[in-house]
Amino acid sequence: MPELRKSGHGKQNGAGWAPETYSRTTPPQLYGKPRADRAMVAMKWLLGAWSPPWELGVRAPSPAPPAATTVVSVARRTVVAGDGSVVELVLDAAPGDTLPTWTAGAHIRVHLPSSRVREYSLCGDPDGRGYRIAVRKVSDDGASGEVHSLALGATLRISRPINAFPLALPGHGSSAGAVHFIAAGIGITPILPMIMTAERWSVPWTLLYLGRSRADLPYLDRLAAYGNRVTIHVDDESGVMTGEDLKDSLPPGAALYLCGPARFVDLAVARFGDSPECAELHFERFGGAAGSGGTAFTVSFRSGRAPVQVSEDEGMLDALVRADPSIGYSCRQGFCGTCRLKILDGEVIHRDSTLTDLERARGYMLPCVSRAGGDDLVIDL
């Protein structure tokens, strides 16, 4: 039986996302970058460590680190779902600038004019110009409504691409014989660049694309070009697909990439997790705010700033960012550790799989998924 490799990633929706990863990681270079020659590495180190007397203390300054965000503008706006609920934005760099390269599965953090920050998968061609994101409108007054209201020429700040859902192609980091994609609704966004990459490398692939109706599914016209490699299943025509139906769709020995709402992904993972036919399992989920669910509580700050109320149906990180948009975070699913905080007083319900027992004993928590076990927390901010 092939080794089962599992990885996962999720995001907060708008529809934007966040990671959780299991088992061994994807190779750092998927497509065959050669190893450096050890003798040359040693020679470069020796030469770099030696300086003639007249150069001591006069070394060139190190290059400046890359900017945390890049300014882009909305160059094109296209409705990509039949019911009008999904809009695609093409984001271009400022004149004279170039956008960083990226690989299939990557996402960016988008800083909206309202100071909201959301994460969206890049859904264009990794070899193309500009970045493309597609967002389903969930409400008029939320982040998704704000994205839909952006006019051509509007400027935004975005992060560099982040990839916690990388594609490992058969023969280039994966031992699988083929790749099978399953996407539900707006979950197609990170899958599209994976399909383009598989095509470019002549890797056999298939896609099962699920939704409530055809009008609800974005990019159907683009996917039609791939013929019978794409299977469309919509509830209003064929009924809701069961876990066993999902399992039957998997070609034996294929690596599986899943993306969709949290409940759908959880159902699929439960069906495929112990399947001997599944060579590898990778997934990305989106849905409601991570870290929600539980009793309301109050967060107080060592600095004395105004306390923050966290309601039952929101995560602690969401409440903190609402009060202070500068608070750092990335994955929103307890994977990356960017949002780690020190707790000075109060009980914590830990829901992450990243912090060690020692870190928890020392009072650290990840507010993106964890929350108070009582009425109050005091944090070191």
Automatic annotation (TrEMBL):
Protein name, per record: Putative oxidoreductase
Needed co-factor(s): FAD
Keywords associated with the record: 2Fe-2S, Flavoprotein, Iron, Iron-sulfur, Metal-binding, Oxidoreductase
Entries under PROSITE patterns matching the protein: 2FE2S_FER_1 (PS00197), 2FE2S_FER_2 (PS51085), FAD_FR (PS51384)
Taxon lineage: Bacteria, Bacillati, Actinomycetota, Actinomycetes, Mycobacteriales
Coiled-coil intervals, chain numbering: none
Region described as Disordered: 1-31
Any one Pfam family match given in the protein's UniProt record, by short name: Fer2
All copies of domain FAD-binding FR-type, residue ranges: 64-168
Record-level Gene Ontology MF annotations: 2 iron, 2 sulfur cluster binding; metal ion binding; oxidoreductase activity
Top-level division of the source organism's lineage: Bacteria
2Fe-2S ferredoxin-type domain mapped to chain residues: 297-381
InterPro entries: 2Fe-2S_ferredoxin-like_sf, 2Fe-2S_ferredoxin-type, 2Fe2S_fd_BS, Beta-grasp_dom_sf, FAD-bd_FR_type, FNR_nucleotide-bd, MRET, Riboflavin_synthase-like_b-brl
Phosphoprotein keyword on record: no
